């Protein structure tokens, strides 16, 4: 069953698990703070809530397992009831596992973005006054003069050639 849940989790970034809560992929953007560009952070977290899985989820799972919606709903809830009743750790692919401590489950993630993204120290950045920025933009915006000069030279060449 878990191997059928992982593609849904990868595609949609969340999955509702009866009796445990919502396992979701959380992203935090990079932030510039005190001359340091803090790396973006991505993690997988378990939120303790008791929402029912969506109809879309059951449709996805029914298509994946080639079962009817009613059968999928029944099998999905029974699967988690059986797993949680054993009070053992439950592996969720390579993303992490649900660890059982005193008949309560906690999420232990194997997904660590600190190995992929590092903070970047930028030091102090030069701040240009608006006048200098405008001068740079004006200098770049003189291409049309070269086009007019080439056009005039071309016309003169045609006239003198004939």
Integer count of domains: 2
DSSP helical segment count: 5
What's the β-strand tally? Answer: 9
What's the helix-strand series?
HEEEEEHHEEEEHH
Radius of gyration: 30 Å
Low-confidence stretches: none
Strand content: 25-35%
What general form does the structure show? Answer: elongated
On the 0-100 scale, what is the average pLDDT?
Answer: 84
Q: What structural class do you assign from the helix and strand content? A: alpha+beta
Share in helix: 40-55%
Biggest beta sheet summary: 3 strands, antiparallel
Report how far apart the termini are: 84 Å
Q: What does the model show?
A:
By secondary structure, this protein is α+β, with helices and mostly antiparallel strands. Helix content is 43%, strand content 26%. It folds into two domains: 2-121, no CATH class; 130-161. The chain contains five helices and nine strands; from the N terminus they run H-E-E-E-E-E-H-H-E-E-E-E-H-H. The strands form three sheets. Strands 1-2-5 form a three-stranded antiparallel beta sheet. The protein has a three-stranded antiparallel beta sheet with strand order 3-4-9, with no helix packed on it. Helix 2 packs across helix 3 (69-85). The chain starts with a helix and ends with a helix.
């Amino acid at each position: 069953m878990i191997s059928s849940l992982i593609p849904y989790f990868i595609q949609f970034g969340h999955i509702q698990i009866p009796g445990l809560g919502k396992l979701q992929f959380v992203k935090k953007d990079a932030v510039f703070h005190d001359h340091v560009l803090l790396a973006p952070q991505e993690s997988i977290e378990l939120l303790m809530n008791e929402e029912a899985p969506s109809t879309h989820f059951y449709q996805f799972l029914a298509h994946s397992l080639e079962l009817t919606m009613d059968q999928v709903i029944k099998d999905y809830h029974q699967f988690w009831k059986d797993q949680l009743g054993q009070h053992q750790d439950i592996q969720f692919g390579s993303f992490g596992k649900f660890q059982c401590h005193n008949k309560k489950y906690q999420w232990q993630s194997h997904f660590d973005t600190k190995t992929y993204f590092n903070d970047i120290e930028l030091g102090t950045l030069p701040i240009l006054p608006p006048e200098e920025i405008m001068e740079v933009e004006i200098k770049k915006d003189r291409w049309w003069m070269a086009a007019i000069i080439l056009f005039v030279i071309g016309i003169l060449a045609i006239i003198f050639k004939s």
